[in-house]
């Protein structure tokens, strides 16, 4: 069974040692930077997050490094994130790939202000375009699986938006592999817009996507974006004094610190570089430009294979049934050379 390490290396388009390289967004043909800027912290309307000037500094650092892929959502900072992103990209809209999301509730009092129905989708996209000050989205994610809406309804409504030029590519996030595989198959059979990308939680401390989601994405040619590549900051800093690390985290932190010392860099950069080495696009969150610049340095790291293997071993998870059964009990069914 393929693991994260089995995901093919990205198809790099161009770049040099001083800037982020560009890669293809699945089979869409859209070029995106190898690192994405996550903007969940952009705005303070929800009672936390970064003020406008800090967001401007973070965005400037990202663009200075060659970043082009900006990831937001209609619920981030109660809509303020999209407003800030819209102002930041206003003078260079076509040079930036903007991804936003819909499906999570924007108004708990309104039952149709959430979900992946045609009604919810239309309202969400129209509102996102207003906040972003643009007439199209490069990528629209279904933020999470809506168990109440048939996948055919969602796909058909998304296809309408693509045909109208309002959305250029579509993706799916926080969804079981079997649902995403079903969606990709239905879209292909009916000639609708294919899925271009998958977004999952993935880091040295969150590797369960290796069981089903990453192999599924490889099979369907989906680009994979990794949210929280630093495990909500746990891989960027040691546990707070007096608070022991959760089971499994201590060993990962130990090896991460060792590799960072050997490479004369920071644990955060090594952790992100490991995700890059698995063929994923890390989505970087930051509360300051300095923090973002540290994370961006991961793109210039090239940890030797033995160091990557040590990190992999420290963070490895069990794939479980049926993967281990197939690996251990059915050796004649293993992939042959050339596959």
Task: Draw up the topology in text.
Blueprint: E1 12-14, E2 22-24, E3 31-33, E4 36-38, H1 52-64, E5 69-71, H2 80-89, E6 97-102, H3 118-132, E7 137-142, H4 151-163, E8 167-173, H5 177-190, E9 195-201, H6 213-220, E10 223-227, H7 249-263, H8 267-277, E11 281-284, H9 289-296, H10 305-315, H11 323-329
Parallel strand pairs: 4-5, 4-11, 5-6, 6-7, 7-8, 8-9, 9-10, 10-11
Antiparallel strand pairs: 1-2, 2-3
Helix pairs in contact: 1-9, 2-3, 4-5, 5-6, 7-8, 7-10
Write out the CATH superfamily name. Answer: NADP-dependent oxidoreductase domain
**Count of domains:** 1
Strand content is 5-15%
Largest sheet: 8 strands, parallel, barrel
CATH architecture label name: Alpha-Beta Barrel
The overall strand count is 11
**Could you name the ranges where pLDDT drops below 50 across 5 or more consecutive residues?**
1-17
Overall radius of gyration: 20 Å
Helix and strand run: EEEEHEHEHEHEHEHEHHEHHH
* Spatial strand arrangement across the major sheet: 4-5-6-7-8-9-10-11
Number of helices: 11
Judged by helices, strands and strand pairing, the structural class is alpha/beta
């Amino acid at each position: 069974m393929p693991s994260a390490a089995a995901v093919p290396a990205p198809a790099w388009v161009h770049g040099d040692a001083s800037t982020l390289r560009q890669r293809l967004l699945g089979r869409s043909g859209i070029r995106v930077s190898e690192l994405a800027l996550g903007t969940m912290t952009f705005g303070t309307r929800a009672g936390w997050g970064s003020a406008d000037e800090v967001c401007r500094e973070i965005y400037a650092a990202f663009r200075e490094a060659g970043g082009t892929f900006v990831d937001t959502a209609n619920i981030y900072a109660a809509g303020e994130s999209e407003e800030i992103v819209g102002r930041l990209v206003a003078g260079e809209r076509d040079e930036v790939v903007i991804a936003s999301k819909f499906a999570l509730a924007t108004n708990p009092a309104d039952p149709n202000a959430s979900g992946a129905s045609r009604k919810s989708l239309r309202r969400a996209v129209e509102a996102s375009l207003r906040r972003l000050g643009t007439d199209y989205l490069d990528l629209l994610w279904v933020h999470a699986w809506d168990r109440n809406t048939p996948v055919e309804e969602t796909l058909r409504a998304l296809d309408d938006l693509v045909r109208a030029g309002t959305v250029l590519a579509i993706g799916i996030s926080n969804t079981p592999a079997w649902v995403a595989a079903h969606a990709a198959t239905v879209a292909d059979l009916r000639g609708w817009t294919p899925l271009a990308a998958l977004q999952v939680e993935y880091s040295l401390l969150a590797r369960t996507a290796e069981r089903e989601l990453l192999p599924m994405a490889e099979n369907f040619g989906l680009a994979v974006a990794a949210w929280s590549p630093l495990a909500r900051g746990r891989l960027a800093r040691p546990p707070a004094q007096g608070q022991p690390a959760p089971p499994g985290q201590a060993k990962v932190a130990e090896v991460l610190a060792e590799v960072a010392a050997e490479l004369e860099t920071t644990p955060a950069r090594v952790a992100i570089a490991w995700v890059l080495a698995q063929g994923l696009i890390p989505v970087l969150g930051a509360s300051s430009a300095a923090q973002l610049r540290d994370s961006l340095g991961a793109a210039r790291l090239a940890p030797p294979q033995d160091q990557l293997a040590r990190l992999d071993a420290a963070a490895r998870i069990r794939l479980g049934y049926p993967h281990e059964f197939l690996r251990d009990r059915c050796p004649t069914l293993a992939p042959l050379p050339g596959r």
